[in-house]
């Protein structure tokens, strides 16, 4: 037993030394045969612009890595983060305008690398030719491998007899000998046949028949085309045949207008292809409309009675009005839903990464709307409409320290726990290494303002990882402050967050009425005027949907308690305006609300100043010195005696003893961190009847 353990340790040490030696060995890379992009006799005088259809890339047919030449179409082993390399086909080779050597690898997937809902039966040496591509550095190429149609057993020989379409996870039979032997893998028409693509990339667009009538419309048609050529088009046009530009010149040269000896003047930009970065109004409008129709159909469906079967009217109302109850749809957030869904759908379709920042005061439906979008995207992924993805939700309120973000994120991705420092290193390596088994991850970070640290390294990494070429990471950040990136974050952090920002406005009373009524469909427990009174009272204070649900739920509890106290057989009556008014007064008469209402003037000013400092900083915890500055300013503005900093410290200690304020116990000076232990709405409710503090409470 001890000998086996010793042998395992020796083998592990040997592999580690080999791996370290491989990493330390310098890799030499040289270009091989160059791919001619245009005949030397016909140089192009057109500028390389976004819409010109040209490129600054120098295309090559082969590359030499450590003395071994690899050509386009060769099967190779690619370095991975583990000892098991990935397998791929070299699809393209080029050098960009910055002089960087790059290669496009099309992955040969093994069964454990495929994202499928069902298990795939395959041989031990079988691989699947896929349409999944990644941009890799040529230095990552380890060696050449052989892929045959049958007969591979050991070594670097593999069997390929089927193809795998990454978008829909569809597997199709493939005659590898005929396709690979004739170098048909590089033909875009092969992709259309194997993977069912509707359009052939790189094919010359068929020109419509020209006549005297449509020649007059030529200028309008050309100016409406606002696209640019893709990399596939530039590669195929240079690899064989004539380019679309030359074809359009030949066609236009043959078209003449009757009575004139020269062809009409036509702009050279003749092809229309999708833009690189679509705006919101271009983001899959059909997919967004389909999602909105599905969402509307759920709202208009017959009410579900499963949750109220066997329950009284009051029990069903209490169950549906609880804030933890998840409704089928979230009313009054259609425009925000469409915008979030459009961004996420486009990123998943294009397999790109992105960052999105969502802001709004508490209780405006930010998290619920994002969850509904993810839920509908999962349904679309199950149907094959969008590629599959993994959903990860992080909440700053559930973390003991901001560094736990790395631990929880790596545990969701890698399936193992690690220290914060090690988890950050593993995540950085994961998002920097190309891999065929890479999922697209949708990460929602709620309560983002609680993750702000002094160095801001956590925020920087969260927003920087989506900009890596192989990340496939979508980060949706949610916070309560609209200008948090500009107010709290460094410029290098806020710039990586991007400009995709969505703000949720507080609910109006009409929207609160719609939310409550949507939850009570099929349950006649409320009078219509009672719901309107509750919505107007909450809408005038904060517009918090959770507060409106709490008021309605408390009114139901009051009525139910009175009904149960009556003799058996008494009929149940609906919740009326009087019951809502009693519930509101009861919530306003809570112990902490009563304490704030009867507190001293300086204590009230301190609470208002603390709320203003928190809103200005955009975080839940602020230093006592910042609160003291605002406190003294409010006193001077309203002709009140401004207390000293020592007296403000005593006021903070008094409020901390009553549990209205939570103060840091390790520091007892202006650097002491303080936070509210009561809701901001309770401060507004408690101070609104006071004529002196009514304006301060609502400001």
Descriptive report:
The termini are far apart. The protein has 26 helices and 20 strands. Strands 2, 5, 6, 7, 8, 9, 10, 11 and 12 form a nine-stranded mixed beta sheet that branches. The protein has a five-stranded parallel beta sheet with strand order 14-15-16-13-17, sandwiched between helices. A three-stranded antiparallel beta sheet has the order 1-3-4, with no helix packed on it. Helix 8 packs across helix 10, helix 17 (509-519) crosses helix 18 (528-541) and helix 19 packs across helix 20 (577-588). Residues 38-48, 198-264 and 266-284 have low confidence and may be disordered. It is α/β, with parallel strands linked by helices and 699 residues long.
Q: What's this model, at a glance?
A:
By secondary structure, this protein is an alpha/beta fold.
Which terms summarize this structure?
699 residues; alpha/beta; nine-stranded mixed beta sheet; five-stranded parallel beta sheet; 42% helix; elongated
What is the radius of gyration?
33 Å
Biggest sheet, open or closed, and with what strands and sense?
9 strands, mixed
Poorly predicted regions are 38-48, 198-264, 266-284
Looking at the structure, what is the overall shape? elongated
Distance between the termini: 75 Å
Assembly type of the chains comes to: single chain
Give the overall average pLDDT: 77
Helix count equals 26
Strand content: 15-25%
Structural class: alpha/beta
Q: How many E strands?
A: 20
Query: Percent helix among the residues?
Result: 40-55%
């Amino acid at each position: 037993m001890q000998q086996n353990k010793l042998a395992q340790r020796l083998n592990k040490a040997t592999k580690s030394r080999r791996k370290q030696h491989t990493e330390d060995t310098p890799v030499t890379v040289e270009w091989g045969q160059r791919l001619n992009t245009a005949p030397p006799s016909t140089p192009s005088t057109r500028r390389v612009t976004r819409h010109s259809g040209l490129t600054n890339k120098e295309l090559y047919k082969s590359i030499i890595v450590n003395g071994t030449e690899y050509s386009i179409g060769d099967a190779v082993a690619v370095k991975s983060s583990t000892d098991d390399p990935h397998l791929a086909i070299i699809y393209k080779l080029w050098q960009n305008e910055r002089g960087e050597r790059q290669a496009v690898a099309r992955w040969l997937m093994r069964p454990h690398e495929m994202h499928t809902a069902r298990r795939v039966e395959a041989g031990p040496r079988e691989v699947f030719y896929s349409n999944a591509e990644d941009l890799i550095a040529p230095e990552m190429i380890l060696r050449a491998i052989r892929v045959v149609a049958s007969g591979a057993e050991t070594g670097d020989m593999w069997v390929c007899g089927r193809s795998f379409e990454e978008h829909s996870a569809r597997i199709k039979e493939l005659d590898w000998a005929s396709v690979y032997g004739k170098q048909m893998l590089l033909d875009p028409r092969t992709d259309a046949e194997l993977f069912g693509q509707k359009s052939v990339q790189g094919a010359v667009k068929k020109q419509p028949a020209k006549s005297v009538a449509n020649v007059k419309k030529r200028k309008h048609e050309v100016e409406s085309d606002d696209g640019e050529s893709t990399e596939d088009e530039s590669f195929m046009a240079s690899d064989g045949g004539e380019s679309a530009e030359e074809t359009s010149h030949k066609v236009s040269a043959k078209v003449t207008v009757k009575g004139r000896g020269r062809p009409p003047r036509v702009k050279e930009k003749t092809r229309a292809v999708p833009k690189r970065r679509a705006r919101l109004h271009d983001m899959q409008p059909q997919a967004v409309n389909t999602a909105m129709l599905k969402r509307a159909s759920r709202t208009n469906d017959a009410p579900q009675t499963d949750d109220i079967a066997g329950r009284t009217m009051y029990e069903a109302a209490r169950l549906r009005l609880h804030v933890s109850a998840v409704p089928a749809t979230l009313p009054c957030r259609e425009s925000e839903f469409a915008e979030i869904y459009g961004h996420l759908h486009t990123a998943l379709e294009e397999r790109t990464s992105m960052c999105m920042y969502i802001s709004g005061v508490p209780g405006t439906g930010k998290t619920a709307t994002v969850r509904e979008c993810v839920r509908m995207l999962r349904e679309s992924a199950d149907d094959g409409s969008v590629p599959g993805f993994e959903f990860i939700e992080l909440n700053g309120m559930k973390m003991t320290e901001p560094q736990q973000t790395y631990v929880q994120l790596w545990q969701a991705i890698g399936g193992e726990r690690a220290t914060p420092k090690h988890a950050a290193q593993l995540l950085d390596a994961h998002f920097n290494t190309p891999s065929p088994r890479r999922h697209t991850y949708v990460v929602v970070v709620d309560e983002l303002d609680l993750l702000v640290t002094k160095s801001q390294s956590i925020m920087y990494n969260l927003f920087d990882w989506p900009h890596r070429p192989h990340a496939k990471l979508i980060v949706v950040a949610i916070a309560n402050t609209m200008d948090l990136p500009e107010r709290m974050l460094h410029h290098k952090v806020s710039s990586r967050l991007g400009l995709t920002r969505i703000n949720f406005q507080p609910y109006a009373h009409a929207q609160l009425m719609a939310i409550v009524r949507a939850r009570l469909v099929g349950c006649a427990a409320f009078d219509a005027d009672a719901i309107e009174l509750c919505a107007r009272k909450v809408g005038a204070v904060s517009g918090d949907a959770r507060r409106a649900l709490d008021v309605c739920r408390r009114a139901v509890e009051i009525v139910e308690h009175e009904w149960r106290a009556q003799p058996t057989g008494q009929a149940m009556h609906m919740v009326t305006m009087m019951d809502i008014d009693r519930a509101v007064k009861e919530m306003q008469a809570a112990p902490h609300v009563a304490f704030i209402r009867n507190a001293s003037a300086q204590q009230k000013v301190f609470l208002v100043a603390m709320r203003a400092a928190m809103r200005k900083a955009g975080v839940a915890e602020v230093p006592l010195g910042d609160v003291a500055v605002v406190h003294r300013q409010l006193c001077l503005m309203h002709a009140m005696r401004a207390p000293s900093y020592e007296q403000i410290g005593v006021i903070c200690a008094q409020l901390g003893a009553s549990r209205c304020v939570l103060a840091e116990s390790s520091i007892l000076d202006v650097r002491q961190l303080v936070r509210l232990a009561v809701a901001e709405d309770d401060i507004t409710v408690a101070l609104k009847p006071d004529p002196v503090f009514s304006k301060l409470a609502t400001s």
